[in-house]
Amino acid sequence: HHQWETFDLLSKQGICMQTVSIKWHNGFLWQAAESGDKQRVEFIIHQNKIDPKVIRRRNSDTLLFCAIRSGNIEFTQWVLSQNWCSLDDKYPDGRTALHIDAVAGHVTMIKFLCEQSPTLNPLVLDNSGNTILHSCAQEGHWDACHELFVSFFQANDNKNMQSFKTIKNHQGETVAQVAEKHGQFYFLEHL
């Protein structure tokens, strides 16, 4: 909170944030994004003439990925409404927004993203060759996997359920095999 006090003091005194080091305004931007503070994010972007379409954090987070990782649906919706990014954007390692949610187990965020873009594909592969479903299995997030299944494969269709169970990653492993390999036995019980 000390940084926010400094930020507020600088902005109240009319000091353009461009005179503050890049490290400081980047820190303020990501801190504001993590807390879902739309007003501060807009102010920092405007004051520093930052292009929100290209700015990335050291870990390659975009504002969208930061919003999704935080699990803040309202802020995520706002970031998407600004047209700064797309749900099809990827990390350098090939992970999409749905990969991020699958690993985090954010079921409500997964549902929200699926509602925002019904064409999102849970079978897209990251650079490791894993689908989003495999990422859920690796982390043991059955609820997230189930939400993806309901959103994309219509859980009541036995034919789709069988195809879901046979989806393989680049290593030739099914979702169940990945869950077993990582000791996710609760996940296996629900498959």
Mean pLDDT: 81
Number of helices: 12
Portion in helices: 55-70%
**Approximately how much beta-strand content do the residues carry?**
under 5%
Please give the alpha-carbon distance between the first and last residues: 45 Å
Which short descriptors sum up this protein?
single chain, mainly alpha, 0% strand, 191 residues
Please give a structural write-up.
Helices cover 58% and strands 0% of the residues. The N and C termini lie far apart (45 Å). It is built from twelve helices and no strands. It has helices at 2-12, 22-34, 38-47, 63-70, 73-81, 97-104, 107-116, 132-139, 142-153, 158-166, 175-181, 185-190. Helix 4 packs antiparallel against helix 5 (73-81), helix 6 (97-104) runs parallel beside helix 8 (132-139) and helix 8 (132-139) packs antiparallel against helix 9 (142-153).
Brief sketch in words of this structure:
It is built from twelve helices and no strands. With about 190 residues, the protein is an all-alpha fold. The longest helix is centred in the first third of the chain and has 13 residues, at about 20-35.
Describe the protein's topology.
Layout: H1 2-12, H2 22-34, H3 38-47, H4 63-70, H5 73-81, H6 97-104, H7 107-116, H8 132-139, H9 142-153, H10 158-166, H11 175-181, H12 185-190
